[in-house]
Amino acid sequence: MNVDRAALAEFLRTRRAALQPEDVGMPAGARRRAPGLRREEVAQLTGMSVDYYTRLEQSRGPQPSEQMLAALARTLRLSADERDYLFRVAGHPAPDRFDAATHVAPALLRVLDRLDDTPALILSSLGETLVANRMAVALFGDHTARTGLDRSDVHRWFADPASREVYPPDERPRHARALVANLRAAYGALGDRSRAGELVRTLQARSPEFAALWDRHEVARRFEDHKTLIHPELGPIEVDCQVLFTEDQSQALLVLTAPPRTEGWEKLRLLSVLGTQRFGAEERVLPPN
Asked: What is the pLDDT of residue 258?
């Protein structure tokens, strides 16, 4: 497929003009001379240079990669139909909608954009972290750049023992069962030939623990209401977990909170101050289930 640079440029310009800073979780700031986001804001949110994005809008840029298009679709809060159109005018086939969804639902993003003082993240049905706010990154690390099966928290849990350190030992068996039950629900929806099927086959061969839990045939899209998470500096943090699903349950927004004036609430306030300064490039582990 060839790039339709003129159509791509016009589409990007109109979608950028349709957004306001508050639509993407940014402060409104001073009054603007032109409607919509600035080019430099789109570039910053997408993780590309301003020059690269400017050339795309001027019909003189290179063909964007699929990864770059996915990031642009997220930044511009595109619907699934708009995302597919973006891919096609950029010379790529539209992503398969019937595999595990990785295009973040705009409705969930609008909620996440307004959550800054408590950990919140959006997960796919395979437990892939699609977007995480700064508090979630401070608690779990940034998993959005992971690739392959390692994007899935289920895969990391059974393939990497270090990924379990965020949970107290007595809570790990229950969490393992919840992860497998969630994967069983995704497998039923997506089928054996999907990435869910690939993940199941890989873990059955690699982990006897996973194989035993898979044979229980437990099926559920569930997240524990209350949990204890271990932070390397703050120690145990007791939190409540709220979850908001998309209508087809392909994605979930997880929000972790603690009642005001409790120890967990105080530790979340400290976490907001600490941020990621301690960790640098060090990875934390998977989000809660």
From this structure: 95
